[in-house]
Amino acid sequence: MKRLTPVIEWGTLLLSTGIVVFFLVVILLDLTIKGMPALSWEFISTFPTEGMTKGGILPAIIGTVLLTLITAAAAAPFGICCAIYLNEYAAETWITKLIRASIRNLAGIPSIIYGLFGLALFVQGLGMGTSLLSAGLTLGLLSLPYIITTTEEALRRIPNSTREAALAVGATQFESIRDVVLPSALPGILTGLVLTLSRAAGETAPILFTGVAFYINNPTGYLNQEFMALPYHLYMLSTQHHSIEEVRPLAYGTALVLLCVVFFLNLTAFYIRYKHNKNGPRAH
Amino acid sequence: MDQEHIKLSAEGVNLSFGSKQVLKNIDIAFPEHQITALIGPSGCGKSSLLRAFNRMHDLSSNARIEGKFNLEDQDLYEKNISVTRVRSRIGMVFQKANPFPKSIYENINYGLKINGIPKDQRPGIIEKALKESYLWDEVKDELHKPAITLSGGQQQRLCIARTVALRPEVILMDEPCSALDPLSTLKIEDLILKLKKKYTIVIVTHNMQQAQRIADKTVFMYLGEIIEQGDTGDVFNNPKNELTGNYVRGRFG
User: Fold this and answer.
1) For residue A214, what pLDDT band results from cuts at 50, 70 and 90?
2) pLDDT of residue A39 exceeding 90
3) Between the CA of residue B92 and those of A192, B86, B124, B168, what are the distances in Å?
4) Burial code of A76-103, b = ≥16 C-beta within 10 A, e = fewer?
5) ipTM
6) B247 contacts: CB under 8 Å, gap ≥ 6
7) Which residues of chain A make contact with B96, given a CB cutoff of 8 A?
8) Is the pLDDT of residue A227 over 70?
9) Cα separation of A227 and B149, whole Å?
10) Sequence ranges of the domains in chain B
11) CA dist., res. B147 & res. A87, Å (int)
12) Of B18, B127, B203, B207, which sees the most CB atoms within 10 A?
């Protein structure tokens, strides 16, 4: 009896891992096999034509890229500054603990709520209308808690002796953060930022009410106009189109492109971390 | 004791973190151009005392400090005094070498830059500081390599170079050799002995032999209080207090 236990333990763990990997592989294979035929230079470089049944997804790609950039521009400065304040300046009182707990909770709020909040605040309250800007700011709000949390973790990994080294040669606290702490934490901060953005790029619910459009035929890129985005395009093609069967290959193609965008962002994060570990291995 | 010029001193020091008192009514004085060793078991408050002089406790929100700290006639905790000025007059070398994640050259240049030393004077000061720390010959051809590629002992000498480049009057050392091998330790001790001609040095150490090899004065601390202070020879060979005797003979610690 006793000798069976390790086998069972080991088997359970292996089985769990196997199930996870199995589904992952099936999803990736299914998407690749069914999406590949749709992929072509034309698919990613032209506008959709004939009621979405032909043509490409260029405006959705541009829309997603611009949306992600606006999200980054809106959320990164505030998020990073907030994390610096919490980790470097704020005393550990019940107020900071409360703020930190609230930020953690914000990260758990369903994204559709952010969508409704964005609709109320940016679209209606501030009169920005359904637009690229409104949607980007809404996604920025969604990303803030993640950026704050990952930045704080990156800062916490910098040993105090590094801060003290700068203070001891006569640097002010601000100089020590600007010149020594932030450069050391930058790879960690960037990794967190890119991973957060890759999450935001795939979100549908927050942009649903705030600016995404089913179809636009004019050039995209104006902050005050509606736009197309990959996740929403995929949602429309797979559930809302008048001839779903006909556009299915295009839906798979879109899914594959979205996956590639997210994968590329994750790869960037991985590369930053790899390069940092290679160049500056620090023992602490 | 003969009449020595007191460089750095503290009177009536009490320090607590939250409800924990770590220093109790400390009176201490460090004579100029001498090496004073602070010894005592872990947690006796010797590092906390050392760090009070260059105001390293300023950023701990729960630290409460009272007492009078003087560098010559300057009150170090006076309201209008600039804390960065205090820290460039009183340099510090830490337990674990903590070079900046920059090049060897930049490690020294940084302190000069933020203290407003003109650009054209810096290369000369950097070379001089590296020579003073006996590191120049080892690094002169690779000044722009990351400091992290140096050995532990070299990194610690770089940290000393970074400190002396600012021409401080006092150098505080917090167990500077505790992470080093015996050979690197001897090199640093050698360096410290040479530095005392120009600087007043206070060193925290756990190593009794080290204190006897380099220190002119020794201060024994226990549970946040100074138990005994005097010439190193007297403290080690003729301790007045029984606790001191037991500690330096290695009966506890």
Assistant:
1) confident
2) no
3) 34, 11, 22, 9
4) beebbebbbebbbebeeeeeeeebbeeb
5) 0.90
6) B39, B40, B41, B220, B222, B253
7) 161
8) yes
9) 51
10) 6-248
11) 26
12) B203
Please provide the DSSP assignment of A105-146 as one string.
Answer: HHTTS-HHHHHHHHIIIIIIIT---SSHHHHHHHHHHHHHHH
- Total domains, chain A: 2
Which residue range(s) make up the domain with A24? 4-36
Q: Specify the pLDDT at position A243.
A: 83
- Looking at the fold, whether A112 and A165 belong to one and the same domain comes out as yes
Q: Residue B98 and residue A162: Cβ atoms within 8 Å?
A: yes
Tens digit of each residue's pLDDT (9 = 90 or more) over A13-35? 999 999 999 999 999 999 999 99
* Overall pTM surpassing 0.95 (yes/no): no
Mean pLDDT on B131-143: 92
* pLDDT above 90 (res B157): yes
Closest CA to A282 of B173, B196, B149: B149
Q: Which two tokens stand for residue B176?
A: 């500077």
Q: Are residues A9 and A105 in the same domain?
A: no
Of A4 and B215, the structure prediction assigns the larger pLDDT to B215
Can you tell me the distance from the alpha carbon of B31 to that of B50, in angstroms, rounded to the nearest whole number?
Answer: 15
Cβ contact, residue pair B96, A161, below 8 Å: yes
Give the closest of B54, B88, B100 to A180, CB-based.
B100
Q: Quote the percentage of chain B above a pLDDT of 90.
A: 88
For residue A38, what pLDDT band results from cuts at 50, 70 and 90?
confident
List the single best residue of A169, A174, A175, A284 to mutate versus B (max B Cβ within 10 A). Answer: A169
Tell the residue number behind the tokens 């990303």, with chain if given: A143
Task: Mark yes or no for CB contact B56/A164 under 8 Å.
Answer: yes
Q: What residues in A contact B202, CB-CB < 8 Å? A: none
Q: Which CATH architecture is the domain B6-248 placed in?
A: 3-Layer(aba) Sandwich (3.40)
Q: Closest residue of B to A175, CA-based?
A: B114
With a CB-CB cutoff of 8 Å, which residues 35-64 of chain A face chain B?
Answer: none
Q: What is the pLDDT of residue A281?
A: 45
